[in-house]
UniProtKB/TrEMBL annotation:
Transmembrane segments: none annotated. PROSITE patterns: PAL_HISTIDASE. Its EC number is 4.3.1.3. Keywords: Cytoplasm, Histidine metabolism, Lyase. It catalyses: L-histidine = trans-urocanate + NH4(+). The keyword Cytoplasm applies. Pathway: Amino-acid degradation; L-histidine degradation into L-glutamate; N-formimidoyl-L-glutamate from L-histidine: step 1/3. It comes from Sinosporangium siamense. This is Histidine ammonia-lyase. It comes from the Bacteria. InterPro entries: Aromatic_Lyase, Fumarase/histidase_N, HutH, L-Aspartase-like, Phe/His_NH3-lyase_AS. Belongs to the PAL/histidase family. One of its GO terms (biological process) is L-histidine catabolic process. It holds the Pfam family Lyase_aromatic.
């Protein structure tokens, strides 16, 4: 969780940090436009107004949009042009998108406006900031964005709210007509002027917001994957010799080295592992799901690092079309194409699926007497009468199967639009939506491994687990009882999910190891 002591996030021409995005999107922090931002917007706005008065057509200012860009729009119709743009593009459909996602896309659009490259009026940007600070979230729908020209439909639903139209939810989640909600909040709706409708909707803000949120979640989940893998290696009487630093140096991937270091720290001083180092163990090497845990989780970490690099570049970008350049030119461009973001969203879904797949294989080993090295069948109290964790593994398997479907890239698809003017699109929004589902799935798979591995460690008594893994078991036992006859299992799985999602499992381990890599 980011530090939320600083309640206000300043929005200026400079890039936002990941933590700042999460503060505003997930934790409701307020925003404040800086004086630099207001000055930059005012300067760019002056240039837009010059072009609006010129007889020379300027895209999006005195022309139509997309395939209709060939029509010159008379000055008296340009306000209507912007309003019509927003109303027609607010064409989303399907379930509502989560509040944190909508707040993220609002914030990131506001930051792009604050760069002074869009030509919007400062007063219009202030209304968008006012919506965030009032906790009013426009209703945005699942379907509608092709990820090029940015997230048009989702952002149009936000722009519609600035006009006083559409519907919003307040901070408590209650649905309101926008005009009434703005009145109650003391916010005056905007009468859009030249270029402003386009400036509000032409960006990759939705897919980028979901990427930043996913990076935050996956950073914690990959540490959790090391925790649950270590618990499984220990409870399945595996060896930690394969995590030796000298072995990791032979293949110097930084993510692998970090993951192996975590495994060593988590397994340090384990009496269970010491018990089979006396020469009685006849196994030469462990199964891949145990032995190769750092290689898979490490590759996922390196993928995360690459995705974070892309996200950082995108947070430093001003995505709009046309843009106002520092020398005063207003130029069309293709920076709204979501390919850079779409690719890494897909990469992360692949990594999430593979980490989950390996975790499920470790769970399955606990349940099979031929592979669990002395544990009861299915970790049941009375196998045959009790089924233990048999069906918990089914649940894991079902989720992993879904994760594999979600790992199919969205960014390789393209459906032409706008009468073939927009003849190649990124599908980055779709990649982001499925990644959110993948993050949830990985959370649940790791929770079931944690639940199962904790029972396995308990069943190794009187041998004691490593201090770090024992701390995780203790944290789980605050809400989930230890081994015994079959109980209603779904609530126990959900308790484990909460422990993983909250970062509690990692925090418990780190209370012994110190910060994990």
């Amino acid at each position: 969780m980011p530090d939320t002591d600083n309640a206000v996030v300043d929005i200026g021409p400079e890039p936002l940090s990941f933590d700042e995005v999460v503060k505003v999107a997930r934790y409701g922090s307020a925003v404040r436009l800086t004086e630099d931002a207001i000055a930059a917007m005012a300067a760019a706005r002056g240039r837009v107004e010059e072009l609006a008065e010129s007889p020379t057509p300027a895209y999006g200012i005195s022309t139509g949009f997309g395939a209709l860009a060939t029509r010159h729009i008379d000055p008296e119709l340009r306000g209507k042009l912007q309003r019509s743009l927003v109303r027609s593009h607010a064409a989303g459909s399907g379930p509502e998108v989560e509040t944190e996602v909508v707040r993220a896309l609002m914030l990131l659009r506001l930051r792009t406006l604050a760069t002074g490259h869009t030509g919007i009026r400062p007063a219009t940007a202030k209304v968008l900031a006012g919506l965030l600070n009032a906790g009013l979230t426009p209703v945005v729908h699942e379907y509608g964005s092709l990820g090029c020209s940015g997230d048009l439909a989702p952002l149009s639903h936000v722009a519609l709210t600035l006009m006083g139209e559409g519907v919003v939810r307040d901070a408590g989640g209650e649905l309101w007509d926008t005009a009434e909600a703005l009145k109650r909040a003391g916010i005056e709706p905007v009468e859009l002027s030249a270029k402003e409708g386009l400036a509000l909707i032409n960006g990759t803000d939705g897919m980028l917001g979901m990427l930043v949120l996913a990076l935050t979640d996956l950073t914690g989940l990959l540490k959790t994957a090391d925790v649950t893998a270590a618990m499984s290696v220990e409870a399945l009487l595996g060896t930690d010799a394969v995590f030796d630093p000298a072995l990791q140096l032979l293949r110097p991937h930084p993510g692998q080295a970090a993951s192996a270091a975590n495994m060593r720290a988590l397994l340090r001083d384990s009496a269970i592992m010491a018990s089979h180092r006396d020469g009685s163990c006849t196994r030469v090497q462990d199964a891949y799901s145990l032995r190769c845990a750092p290689q898979v989780a490490g590759a996922a970490r390196d993928t995360l690092t690459h995705a974070a690099t892309v996200a950082g570049r995108e947070l430093a970008s001003a995505v709009d079309n046309p843009v106002v350049l520092p020398d005063g030119r207003v130029e069309s461009n293709g920076n709204f194409h979501g390919a850079p973001v779409g690719y890494v969203l897909d990469f992360l879904a692949i990594a999430a699926a593979d980490v989950a797949s390996m975790a499920e294989r470790r769970t399955d080993r606990f349940l099979d007497v031929a592979r669990s090295h002395g544990l009861p069948a299915f970790l049941a109290d009375d196998p045959g009468v009790d089924s233990g964790h048999m069906i918990a593994q089914y649940t894991q398997a079902a989720i992993v199967s879904e994760l594999k479907r979600l790992a199919v890239p969205a960014s390789v698809d393209s459906i032409p639009s706008s009468a073939m003017q927009e003849d190649h699109v990124s599908m980055g929004w779709s990649a982001a939506r499925k990644l959110r589902k993948a993050v949830d799935g990985l959370t649940r798979v790791l929770a079931i491994e944690l639940l199962t591995a904790a029972r396995g460690l308990d069943l190794r008594a009187p041998l004691k687990a490593a201090p770090a893994t024992a701390a995780v078991v203790t944290a789980l036992r605050e809400t989930v009882k230890g081994p015994g006859p079959d109980r209603f299992l779904a609530p126990e799985i959900e308790a484990a999910v909460r422990l993983v999602a909250s970062g509690g499992a990692v925090s418990a381990a780190e209370s012994v190891t110190g910060p994990l890599a």
